[in-house]
């Protein structure tokens, strides 16, 4: 009888492998892995200095659409590692011209946003959602969760919120994948195009195209500041 009880206890108690699996897959373990991953990506950016593209140009062995595809992939990975998009957009225009540079930058934007959203959703959401207790945090989370496409479209059209911050905030919220991707793709077009044109015409800073591009950069930024200033009352009301 005693042997039977011991056998039953051994069969029902969780094994070491199960406990280790649960520990590794726990919300805070996944969040810790995400933080380590992002810290490593940021360190990689400091080492490789992608901003040198603006001064040294693109490797001569790569050209045309293939170079734009490689650049778009690198662009997306750089945004995950917190490289500012304006710098990358200027580089896209300077390296590939307005049209091809815009295409490469937009592809990189969507890729980077999608990767960041996926990482945040898989590794950070479960651990961070219970921490959304402040009034502003709950209001922002509710806005993103209920009006995901509209909120993200506004965030992309009117610069103010850092690109990486918007990605990870959306991932922690209950926003759907497709509204996030579509809003990012559509909302990023005007600002990205303005930077790409500015990068392509940087050698002629007095040209009409460059001046119009700079105006298209400054005006949305100003409008975004005004909208954010007025929207703070709405968040406080929640």
TrEMBL record:
GO terms for cellular component: plasma membrane. Residues 83-200 form the VTT domain. Its main location: membrane. The keyword S-adenosyl-L-methionine does not apply. It comes from the Bacteria. InterPro entries: TMEM64, VTT_dom. It is a multi-pass membrane protein. Belongs to the TVP38/TMEM64 family. This is TVP38/TMEM64 family membrane protein.
């Amino acid at each position: 009888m005693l042997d039977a009880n011991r056998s039953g206890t051994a069969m029902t108690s969780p094994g070491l492998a199960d406990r280790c699996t649960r520990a590794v897959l726990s919300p805070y373990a996944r969040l810790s892995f995400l933080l380590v991953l992002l810290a490593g990506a940021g360190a990689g950016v400091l080492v490789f200095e992608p901003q040198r593209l603006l001064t040294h140009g693109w490797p001569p062995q790569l050209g045309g659409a293939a170079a734009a595809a490689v650049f778009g992939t690198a662009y997306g990975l750089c945004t995950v590692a917190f490289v500012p998009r304006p710098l990358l957009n200027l580089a896209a225009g300077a390296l590939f011209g307005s049209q091809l540079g815009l295409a490469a930058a937009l592809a990189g934007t969507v890729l980077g946003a999608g990767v960041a959203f996926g990482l945040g959703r898989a590794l950070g959401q479960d651990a961070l959602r219970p921490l959304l207790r402040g009034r502003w945090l709950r209001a922002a989370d509710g806005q993103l969760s209920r009006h995901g496409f509209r909120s993200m479209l506004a965030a992309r059209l009117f610069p103010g919120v850092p690109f990486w911050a918007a990605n990870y905030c959306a991932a922690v919220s209950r926003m759907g994948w497709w509204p996030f991707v579509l809003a990012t793709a559509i909302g990023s077009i005007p600002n990205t195009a303005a930077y790409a044109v500015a990068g392509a015409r940087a050698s002629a800073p007095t040209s009409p195209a460059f001046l119009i591009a700079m105006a298209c950069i400054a005006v949305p930024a100003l409008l975004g500041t005004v909208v954010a200033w007025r929207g703070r009352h709405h968040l406080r009301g929640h």
